[in-house]
Amino acid sequence: MYAERVLSGMRPTGSLHLGHYHGVLKNWIELQHEYPCLFFVADWHALTTQYDNPQGIEKASMDMVVDWLAAGVDPNQATLFVQSRVPEHAELHLLMSMMTPLSWLERVPTYKDQQEKLAGKDLTTYGFLGYPLLMSADILIYRADKVPVGEDQIPHVEFTRELARRFNHMYGREPGFEDKAREAVKKLGSKKARLYEEMRTRFQQNGDRDAIEQAKAVLDEVQHLSMADRERLFGYLEGTGKMILVEPGYLLTEASKMPGLDGQKMSKSYNNTITMRESEESVTKKVRSMPTDPARVRRTDPGEPAKCPVWQLHLVYSNDGCKEWVQQGCRTAGIGCIECKQPVIDAILKEQAPMRERAQVYLDDPTLVKNIIADGCEKAREYARETMRDVREAMGLEYH
Ligand code: TRP
Ligand code: SF4
């Protein structure tokens, strides 16, 4: 069965925090069991805003991959790689730039939003305008069906879909398409080829949609077909020509509800984070110095959990019994705040213990991480090269 492919990338922003873990990484870890997954470090995307100070990007990338591994992303199940180590992304980005209307790029909401948000930085650059296009290249080069992203990234996936459609429309009629499709039919073997032809005729003469579904089921059973032939056979079936680039769908990653140390959402820019591999002492210290309900000036003053950021963390980490203990104890001044914080500290340390342990292996031997990335890049490049062969051919750039 032809499995759907998941792809996602993350800009290397340095050490990840528990918000990333509860938001994005847990999701990746679930997905890696269900689909073939490609996860990559979007280091070129980091350059679009950090072009004036690129020195830290490599280290941030490696630290981030260690965090992925620490969280339980499994390099035996998912392909992990670094964008800039797969230069085919740049070639696709360039080729698509020829046919991308400027107005499409200027219309993407993040373009103006980010320029306003990072007002201190000159983002009137070619590279920054092309941010969504580079992201489209990342997605389309793997013919990814499913792209897990946060809400802010959805316009980029929509942009990618429009671009794929435009591309296929412009270049989808590869020269010699019919001949190549007929060759591909032969590769199905005589029995399946006959079935396929039968279904194709049924659809093209009678418009029978069931026939399409049946033919697709036949194709799904065939293992040895190249991606290019498969696309041709899909196109030939419906008479649409070849679908060179696949329109992706997105999987919305729910915004992390992980609260930070001050009760706002955990975020590096609020300076309220606990990193995934923060030391035990530091976790303890940070939670102990969290603000609490201001009404509890003295130990004997009762408080209200709803007004306290520590309670937000109990909602994430504590069971019903513990939560009841907090509610009761806080409102009656039966417990002190230091006491109340302890179960949260314990729960965070318990969550982090296996992460710290997994990370240690990679910190002790950084070549392990390098090898994982090198293997991942090689695998990713195989897919990417296959797509680029089709793209070059469609655009008349084969030179053989
Ligand atoms: N732009 C994404 C972000 O900031 C990162 C990213 C780059 C990405 N390329 C991608 C995500 C391709 C999904 C697919 O979060
Ligand atoms: Fe917050 Fe707990 Fe103190 Fe109540 S007892 S104010 S919930 S830390």
Which features does this protein show?
400 residues, mainly alpha, Rossmann fold, Tyrosyl-Transfer RNA Synthetase, 3 domains, 3-stranded parallel β-sheet, two-stranded parallel sheet, 5 strands, 59% helix, binds tryptophan, binds iron/sulfur cluster
Q: Could you explain the architecture of this structure?
A:
- This protein is mainly α and 400 residues long.
- It folds into 3 domains: 6-172 and 367-394, 3-Layer(aba) Sandwich (Rossmann fold); 177-238, no CATH class; 277-364, Tyrosyl-Transfer RNA Synthetase.
- Helix content is 59%, strand content 6%.
- It has 18 helices and 5 strands.
- The structure holds tryptophan and iron/sulfur cluster.
Q: Radius of gyration from the CA trace? A: 26 Å
Arithmetic mean of pLDDT:
94
Question: How many DSSP H or I helices?
Answer: 18
Task: Kindly estimate the percentage of residues that lie in beta strands according to DSSP.
Answer: 5-15%
CATH homologous superfamily identity of the largest domain: HUPs
How many domain units? 3
